[in-house]
Amino acid sequence: MEPKLTEIAMRIRDMREMKGRTVGEMAEIAGVTPEEYTELESGGSDFGFTFLYKCAKEFGVDIIDIITGENPHLTEFSLVPAGRGLPIKRRAGFDYQHLAPFFRDKLAEPFLVSAKYREEEQDAPIAMSTHRGQEFDYVLKGTMRFVHEDHEMVLREGDAVFYDSGMRHGMIATSEDGCQFLAVVVKDPEEVSR
User: Fold this and answer.
1) What is the pTM of this model?
2) What is the CATH number of the domain that holds 184?
3) Does 75 map to a domain?
4) What is the extent of the structural domain holding 31?
5) pLDDT value for 192
6) For position 55, which CATH number holds?
7) Which pLDDT belongs to residue 179?
8) d(CA 163, CA 169)
9) Burial call 36-62: b when 16+ CB within 10 Å, e when fewer
10) Residue 82 CB coordination number (10 Å)
């Protein structure tokens, strides 16, 4: 079952208040305007992965704490049967399934991502984001256009890209049936050591 937007927003607000951060401070940390942050924290807008990732980092919690309200507790291994990852729909046209939601102290966040083909995106600039660390994306089905700073390329089934995710990056599905890829977000070493 997908977590409710209002519940996630409430957890973000509560954690911000416990941390003693203002809306303006959190907006700067999350890379959004104070108005956008207020809209997100009120549950009026859906969250992007990067926003959730930056909030979790600032609050010193796992991203799953924010999304589900549950603290990851597994330490030896985590099995996720096919099609049973934790669903996260946090970016227009992209569906994420977290593939290790309840494994504690993860060094990386693994996702199965399905991106829908959207005609209006094909000739438009790709929305870019940043988050500290590194990322590995492996295309399982379809094709995607991938941009990293000034580099743009088309990735096909079987192609992989590993990159510094602290630099601007983004992607869209270019095949009409959409694109499915494995995304592994590797945390920044400073983040892991705290």
Assistant:
1) 0.78
2) 2.60.120.10
3) no
4) 5-68
5) 59
6) 1.10.260.40
7) 97
8) 9
9) ebbebbebebebbbbbbbbbbbbbeeb
10) 6
